[in-house]
Amino acid sequence: MGFFSKLKFWQSKHDSEAPEGASAPASPKEATQPGSSIQSDTIAPSTAAVEAQPAAAQPTPDEQPTMAAEPWQTELTLALREAEPRLSQWLALVLQGMEAKGPELWQRLDFLFRALGAPEVEALDFIKRFDAWLTMMDYERVEDFRSELQYRLALALDLEDEEDERSRLLLKLSEGLEKTKDKITRRIDGLLSAHNEMDEEFWEELEEILLMADVGFDATHLLVENLRERARKAETKDTADFKGFMAEELAEVFKGERRISAVNPPEVVMVIGVNGVGKTTTIAKLAHRAQMQGKKVLVAAGDTFRAAAMEQLQVWAERAGAGFYGKGEGADPAAVAFEAVDYALKEHYDIIFVDTAGRLHTKVNLMEELKKIKSVLGKKHPGAPHRSILVVDATTGQNALSQTDLFSKAVGVDEIVLTKLDGTAKGGVVVAIALQFGVPITFVGLGERMEDLRPFNGQDFATALLGS
C-alpha cells in the first residue's frame, strides 16, 4: 500500500487493528516558507504571508492529544477509515455539507492533515496560505475553489502521483486535446475504417493527416517510418494493430533522458520565450507548485523592456505565495538577474525563477541579451542557470518549432513548457518538438487556473489522444 498503509485513519476493511510496532504515520516534508517581504528601493514586498490566522485554524494544546475529541471528529474518522484511499474521496467527506469557507472548513482541513500524520505547523501554514488566496481571489463558495483545494492538497501531501490524481490529469488532458483530436484521432479512426491493411496508400494518407495536425514534415516522415518498422517487426499489416503501435511509439518519443537533478542551492531557473506565449503566468504556476512542495521561492522580474511586465509578474508572484525581486522598467536585465541571485543567496531561498525579455525571436539583440543574462548568472552562482525553460504557445503550430530552434542555438533549452494546448487543433506540434529536438516537455498548460499547468507524461498523452 505504500503511503496509504501508514495513515492514521485508513486500513483495509479486511485488516484488523494495526499490530504493535507498525510503521509510524508518514511525515510529509518540512513546513513551507512564505515569500520574503522586504521593503527597499529594489525589492517589492510579497503579500503572500497573511497577518491573521483563520479563526479556528489553531487548536489549543488541550485539543491536540486526541484525534477524535468531538462527535464530528469521531464521525469523520470512521468515514475516512471506510473510504477508498483516495484524496478525492477524503476531500468529499471533509467538505460534506459545507457550502462556503469559514471556521468549520479550517477545522476540518486541520483535522485531515493531522489524520494523515502531517506536522501541525504544516497544516496551519497550508490553511493560512489557502485562506489568503481565497481572499485575494474573492472566493467564498466551496464549488468555486474545490478543484484548486484538491490540487493544492495533492502537492502539499505528496499525493500527486497517486492513481486518483493521475486520473484527474488524464481527464484534463483528454479534454484539452479535444480540438487536436478532431485533426488527428477522428481522421485516423476514419483511415482505419477505410483500410483493412497497412499498405502504401494507408501510410500516405496517414502522412497527410499528421501534416495537417502540424506535426511537421521532418517529424511526420520520421514518425511514419518508425511506425512502419514496428509493423514490419511484428510481421503484420492488420490495421487493428495500428493504434497499439502508435501509442507505443508516442510513449517512446516522449521518453526523456535521465538528468542530474542535484544543484547547489538556490536552484536558478531561467525562463525564456517570446512575448504572448504565457511566460508570466507559467512562471507563477511553476512558482506555485514549488512553493506548495515546501520550497522557498523567489521570482525575479528580468523582463524590463515590456511595459507593465514587472507589475504583472509581481501580482502573479503574490498570488503564488512567492517572494518577488524587481528594479523597475528599463533596468538592465542582467543586473536584475545578478542582484536577484545575490538576494536569494543571502535570504536562503531554495529556488529562483528568472523572467526574461520576450521580444520577437527574430531580433538578434534579444538573443545577445539572453546570452549575457546566462553568463552573468553563471558568474554569480556556479552552475547557474541550472535549468533553462522555454515557454511555447501550442496554438502557433510550426512557428513553435522555429522558436525552439533559435532559442536552443542561442542559450540552450533544457525543457519546454507548452501552453494553451486546450485551445488549439495544432497539438501535433508536441510530437514535432520531441522528435526534432529531443528536448523534454515537462509541463503543458490546459487552462488559466494554477492547477491547469500539469506535468506532461508521454503515455498519458498517447492515451488521451488516441482514446485507448
Walkthrough of the structure:
- The protein is about 50% helix and about 10% strand.
- It is of the alpha/beta class and about 475 residues long.
- Strand 7 (about 440-445) and strand 8 (about 455) form a beta hairpin.
- The longest helix is centred in the N-terminal third of the chain and has 18 residues, at about 120-135.
- It starts with about 70 loop residues before the first helix and ends with a helix.
- An eight-stranded mixed sheet has the order 3-2-4-1-5-6-7-8, sandwiched between helices.
- It is globular.
- It is built from 18 helices and eight strands.
Q: What keywords describe this structure?
A:
468 residues; alpha/beta; globular
Give the secondary structure arrangement, pairings included.
Elements: H1 71-82, H2 87-94, H3 103-115, H4 120-137, H5 142-156, H6 163-176, H7 178-183, H8 185-194, H9 200-212, H10 217-233, H11 242-253, E1 267-272, H12 279-292, E2 297-300, H13 309-320, E3 323-325, H14 333-346, E4 351-355, H15 364-380, E5 387-393, H16 398-411, E6 415-419, H17 429-437, E7 441-445, E8 453-455, H18 458-466
Parallel strand pairs: 1-4, 1-5, 2-3, 2-4, 5-6, 6-7
Antiparallel strand pairs: 7-8
Helix pairs in contact: 3-4, 6-18, 8-9, 9-10, 10-11, 10-17, 11-18, 12-13, 14-15, 16-17
